[in-house]
Design goal:
It is a single chain. This protein has 1 helix and 11 strands; from the N terminus they run αβββββββββββ. The chain has 2 domains: 48 residues; 125 residues, Sandwich (Immunoglobulin-like). The chain is α+β, with helices and mostly antiparallel strands. A hairpin with a 6-residue loop joins strand 9 and strand 10.
Length: 189
């Protein structure tokens, strides 16, 4: 007997379909990995941007403001300066122990040392700390000028106050033509 011939059709469409499915799954996996890398990178960049923003805000918002400068006259020259300071609006509290103060005149430039020729007191305080200048406080820096560099009549000088964070405050002062027998003379404003 002769076997009946079976006529099998060759259909290669299924092979092409499976190949297309494998390529599609591979593309989805590659896209998922790329998306994960992008999301992770954007997260890192966001954290860096937030940190930079906080630092920039601290730099700008912790400014000091000089309210007035009064010179104490002794022997015909100013030997001490009382500098009234406060935190600018919206500023952060400032630890006055970390302040750097530089006094510059025609003869020299000197950093004043806290406790030696620089003293800090508070004329008005809204908190219990005597060394932290907070919003609403009125602090007084007393600068004892070097004995070799008092401020005489018709002289100019510069005071630079450098906080730990924030911008440096520079104030130029000028003495009058005569002190007219006064023991204190307002140099700013």
């Amino acid at each position: 007997m002769k076997a009946k011939g079976t006529n099998l059709m060759k259909n290669e469409d299924a092979d092409v379909g499976i190949g297309t499915l494998i390529i599609f799954i591979a593309m989805v996996l590659v896209a998922a990995v790329a998306a994960a890398v992008l999301i992770q990178t954007s997260g890192v960049l966001q954290q860096k941007a937030q940190q930079t923003g906080k630092e920039a805000t601290a730099e700008v918002s912790s400014n000091l403001k000089i309210v007035s400068v009064v010179g104490n006259v002794t022997g015909g020259a100013i030997d001490k300066l009382d500098v009234l300071i406060e935190v600018s609006a919206g500023g952060n509290p400032i630890d006055t122990n970390t302040l750097r103060v530089k006094y510059i005149n025609n003869n020299s430039a000197n950093f004043l040392v806290n406790g030696t020729n620089l003293n800090y007191t508070e004329d008005r305080t809204v908190d219990s700390s005597n060394t932290v200048l907070s919003s609403g406080d009125l602090g007084k820096l007393t600068l004892t000028l070097p004995a070799s560099s008092p401020l005489n009549v018709r002289e100019t000088a510069t005071i630079q106050i450098i906080p730990e964070t924030g911008t440096m405050v520079i104030k130029d002062i000028a003495t009058p033509a005569t002190f007219a027998g006064k023991t204190q003379y307002q140099l700013f404003p």
